[in-house]
Write a structure and sequence with these properties.
The chain is of the alpha/beta class. Helix content is about 50%, strand content about 15%. The protein is globular, with a radius of gyration of 17 Å. The protein starts with a strand and ends with a helix.
C-alpha cells in the first residue's frame, strides 16, 4: 500500500517526532510511506472562522498533492475530519470536484483507525510499560467514530495498563478557535479534564490530536502538575515515548 502521510501543521511546527513515529508505525505495518514536501494546512482554521474561499483553495491544493495515493493517513482526527466531512461540504455545488473529494475522503484515515482496520499489524514496535489514560478528541470521535481503535492497539501492548478517566469523551476546551473566542469557558473545560486525568493516578495522558494534548499539557503545567506525561498515541505505539 502506498500511503500519503499528511503531517499536520501542529505536528510539523511543534512536535515533529509524532510524524516520524507515524512513519515508523506505517512502515512496520508493511506500507510504503510518502510525505509530500509541499503540504501545508488542511484549511480547518479558515473554515472554522468562516473563510470558505481560503479553505477551498487549500482543499484543492491538498487534492492535487494526495489524490494519487492508495490511502491518506493523518496523526489527527481533527484534520482527517476536515478532509472527510467538510471538504465535500465546501464543494457541494461543484459536482465534478465533489465526486473527487468524496472519493478522496473514503481513502483518508486517522492513524489508529488505519492501523486497526486496514493495515492490521501483528504488533506495535513500542515497549511502553505502565499506566496511562486516554482522551478522545471531539473530531476523531464524533466525525470519524474513533474510539475503539486506539484502545485496541494499546491492548495489544502487554506493558500497558489503561486507566479510563471520567468523561474521557468530553471536550478538553481546545476546539481550535473556540479556545481563543471563549477563553474563560475553555479554561474551565480544560481544568475539568485535567482533574479527571489526575484522578486516574495513571501518570500519563495519551491522545490522538496534538491540539488537545497541547491544551491539556499547558493547563496541567499552569496548575503546577509537572509530573503527568502528555503523549501522542503514535509516540507510545512506536516506542518514541522517552
Amino acid at each position: 500500500m502506498r500511503i500519503g502521510l499528511f503531517v499536520t501543521c501542529l505536528v510539523d511546527s511543534i512536535r515533529p517526532g509524532i510524524g516520524f513515529a507515524a512513519i515508523e508505525l506505517l512502515e512496520a505495518a508493511g506500507c510504503e510511506v510518502v510525505v509530500p514536501e509541499q503540504q501545508t494546512c488542511c484549511g480547518q482554521p479558515g473554515y472554522n472562522s468562516g473563510d470558505s474561499k481560503m479553505a477551498r483553495a487549500l482543499a484543492l491544493k491538498f487534492l492535487a498533492e494526495f489524490e494519487s495515493f492508495d490511502y491518506i493517513v493523518l496523526p489527527s482526527g481533527s484534520c482527517a475530519g476536515m478532509i472527510r466531512v467538510h471538504y465535500p461540504e465546501l464543494f457541494k455545488d461543484d459536482p465534478e470536484q465533489l465526486t473527487r473529494f468524496i472519493a478522496l475522503g473514503t481513502r483518508t484515515f486517522e492513524l489508529t483507525d488505519f492501523l486497526h482496520r486496514i493495515a492490521k499489524p501483528e504488533k506495535m514496535p513500542g515497549t511502553f510499560k505502565g499506566r496511562l489514560t486516554y482522551h478522545d478528541s471531539c473530531s476523531g470521535l464524533r466525525e470519524l467514530d474513533v474510539y475503539e481503535q486506539p484502545r485496541a492497539l494499546l491492548a495489544g501492548m502487554p506493558g500497558v495498563t489503561l486507566n479510563e478517566m471520567v468523561e474521557s469523551t468530553t471536550c478538553c476546551g481546545f476546539g481550535g478557535t473556540f479556545s481563543v473566542k471563549y477563553g474563560e469557558l475553555s479554561t474551565r473545560m480544560a481544568d475539568n479534564k485535567c482533574r479527571h486525568i489526575v484522578d486516574t493516578h495513571a501518570g500519563t495522558i495519551a491522545g490522538g490530536d496534538l491540539g488537545c494534548l497541547l491544551n491539556i499539557e499547558g493547563r496541567l503545567r499552569r496548575n503546577g502538575d509537572h509530573a503527568t506525561r502528555v503523549l501522542h498515541i503514535a509516540e507510545i505505539l512506536a516506542g518514541k515515548d522517552m
